[in-house]
């Protein structure tokens, strides 16, 4: 990054001013020089932070993952709730009914858990 001011030139100017003004102005000249150096450092740090922020924060876009999670939730509930109601009104035996119901919900939960864990490993 190119320098906007030259610290070496500032230092030489301060030393030259001290020669002309005398030692009684030395403290003021040093403080002025250090203030200019401090401002230059602050400016460079701000420029670097701004450049890094521009590189790291692309335009905000809706996440594909968010849409996939929503679709999975809708499908899970869309299959689970009607499936539960249908199984509840069926004429199968109670033990078979319970087994099918538990199996259906374990499958739905398994798909959701595997989707979530797979996304965590990727991201």
Over all CA atoms, what is the radius of gyration? Answer: 35 Å
In round numbers, the mean pLDDT is 79
How far the N terminus sits from the C terminus, by CA atoms, comes to: 33 Å
Total of helices? 4
> What's the number of extended β-strand segments?
0
Explain this structure.
The protein is mainly alpha-helical and 123 residues long. The chain contains four helices and no strands. The model has no long low-confidence stretch (mean pLDDT 79).
Q: How is this structure best summarized?
A:
The protein has 123 residues and is mainly α. The protein has helices spanning 7-21, 26-56, 64-88, 94-122. The protein is rod-shaped and about 110 Å long.
List the helices and strands and how they pair.
Elements: H1 7-21, H2 26-56, H3 64-88, H4 94-122
Helix pairs in contact: 1-2, 3-4
Main attributes of the structure:
single chain; 123 residues; mainly alpha; 81% helix
């Amino acid at each position: 990054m190119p320098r906007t001011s030259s610290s070496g030139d500032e230092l030489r100017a301060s030393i030259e001013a001290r020669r002309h003004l005398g030692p009684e102005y030395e403290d003021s000249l040093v403080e002025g020089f250090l203030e200019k150096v401090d401002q230059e450092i602050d400016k460079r740090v701000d420029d670097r932070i701004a450049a890094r922020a521009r590189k790291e924060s692309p335009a905000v876009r809706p996440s594909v993952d968010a849409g996939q999670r929503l679709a999975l939730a809708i499908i899970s509930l869309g299959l689970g709730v009607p499936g539960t109601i249908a199984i509840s009104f069926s004429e199968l035996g109670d033990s078979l009914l319970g087994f099918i119901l538990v199996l259906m919900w374990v499958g739905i939960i398994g798909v959701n858990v595997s989707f979530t864990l797979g996304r965590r490993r990727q991201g």
